[in-house]
Amino acid sequence: DQQVKQNSPSLSVQEGRISILNCDYTNSMFDYFLWYKKYPAEGPTFLISISSIKDKNEDGRFTVFLNKSAKHLSLHIVPSQPGDSAVYFCAARGSQGNLIFGKGTKLSVKP
Amino acid sequence: DVKVTQSSRYLVKRTGEKVFLECVQDMDHENMFWYRQDPGLGLRLIYFSYDVKMKEKGDIPEGYSVSREKKERFSLILESASTNQTSMYLCASRTGAGASGANVLTFGAGSRLTVL
Predict the structure, then answer these.
(1) Which of A49, A85, A94, B115 lies at 20 to 30 Å from A77 by C-alpha?
(2) Using one digit for the tens of pLDDT, what is the confidence trace for A67-105?
(3) CA of A78: how far to CAs of A45, A68, A75, B87, B108, in Å?
(4) DSSP readout, B7-73?
């Protein structure tokens, strides 16, 4: 059973607009949530994280929101740029400290 | 700049061959991990190691083994490669227990394995 779900396999956004990537989870014991970005033929790179005791974390154009009651988090990218086109993975840290990843959302930002 | 280096970016092997995927990190990290990435399936954990000589099974260990003889090196072994092991393999590392914050995983560039 999937503990971390990214229900949208793909998302297409116009350059300059907001991209919103969503992630749902089932385990209320996760203590950290992370977003990774992956370009083809490269390894994932860390983007931003949020502790389970926070509801928002911001880093430049990237903001992650956490709604614990809904077990939902989202990544907002504003403004979106063509270089943001990549696969984005949501991950949650479990009791052993290991990360559980979602299946990813492919973001395409069109000029 | 800190690095996780995977020795082979692209490999083509035949069914039944033994395959070694090597990973080296220069960050003095205690923990190391092997994932595979497949379209529509995300990143799945194969094996991990919290310290030298230690290894733990992840979610999909069948058909794989690992070796961690030195702190900086973590090898993934396919004893007898099969076509369903064609995938992108990703190595990652991080500091050990007691680290503060999210204790982020740092990934290598990946090894694309094709088994014919």
Answers:
(1) A94
(2) 999 999 999 999 999 999 999 999 999 877 889 999 999
(3) 19, 23, 10, 33, 28
(4) S-SEEEE-TT--EEE-EEESS--SEEEEEEEETTTEEEEEEEESSTT--EE-S--TTEEEEEEETTE
Cβ <8 Å between B104 and A45: no
Of residues A32, A93, A102, nearest to B42 (C-beta): A102
Measure the CA–CA gap between B76 and B101, rounded to whole angstroms.
28
Q: Are the beta carbons of A103 and B41 closer than 8 angstroms?
A: yes
* pLDDT tens, residue by residue, B11-44: 999 999 999 999 999 989 999 999 999 988 989 9
